[in-house]
């Protein structure tokens, strides 16, 4: 299993709605609005990177209010 944090920027005032919508997506473990350079941080998981690519690259970025996403894969040593 592979996990990643996804840092999202949203349109103005959309962070709570985006976080709530993300929580309903398969593969999203947690999604919370935050203050700072990003508006929402989500933790996602999949069996491989191939599972995360469509989740972040299409599904999450298609949520209304999402402007940008940056994926940070968790490295297990």
Index terms:
77 residues; alpha+beta; four-stranded antiparallel sheet; 26% helix; globular
Description of the molecule:
There is one protein chain. The two termini are 14 Å apart. It contains 2 helices and 4 strands, in the order E-H-E-E-H-E. Strand 2 (28-33) and strand 3 (40-46) form a beta hairpin. The longest helix has 12 residues, at 49-60. With 77 residues, the protein is an alpha+beta fold. Helix content is 26%, strand content 39%. It is globular and about 35 Å long. The chain has helices at 15-22, 49-60, and strands at 2-10, 28-33, 40-46, 66-73. The relative contact order is 0.33. The model has no long low-confidence stretch (mean pLDDT 94). A 4-stranded antiparallel beta sheet has the order 2-3-1-4.
